[in-house]
Specification:
The chain is an alpha+beta fold. It has a domain at 37-121: Nuclear Transport Factor 2, Chain: A, CATH 3.10.450.40. The protein is built from 3 helices and 7 strands; from the N terminus they run ββββαααβββ.
């Protein structure tokens, strides 16, 4: 499975020599997972029930950690191409009001994606 490659910093489409670049395998799966984790609930007018409830459940004072774990694990598992989450750790820092997520995912084609320090600042 392949996807259009996005720049990790700007989120813009990547072009080389005037042509769009495709990403495949592990890189494509990682990109889909990260996009899913950055997708706010209600952002898509055609499917307003999709996305992470950042405003209602995540970016609040003293968020419920078990609920956050469920929300983020579910978002990862719903990504096309994800077979299982092998490791998942969510840490909340109440002083900084930030969340750090580390996880390892196995794709349906055997790809392994490890994300360290996916950080959400409140």
């Amino acid at each position: 499975m392949s996807d259009l490659k996005l720049d990790r910093v700007t989120g813009d489409l990547v072009f080389e020599n005037g042509d769009l670049v495709l990403t495949q395998g592990q890189d494509a799966l990682e990109q889909r997972i990260l996009l899913s984790l950055m997708f706010f609930l209600g952002d898509a007018f055609e499917s307003p029930a999709e996305g992470i409830p950042y405003f209602d459940r995540v970016l609040v004072k003293n968020p419920p950690i078990p609920a956050l774990t469920t929300i983020f694990r579910r978002a990862i598992l719903l990504v096309d191409g994800v077979d299982e989450i092998e490791r998942f750790q969510l840490n909340y820092d109440p002083q900084q009001r930030s969340i750090r997520i580390d996880f390892r995912v196995r794709g349906v084609l055997g790809e392994v994606v490890t994300i360290k320090d996916f950080i959400i600042d409140g």
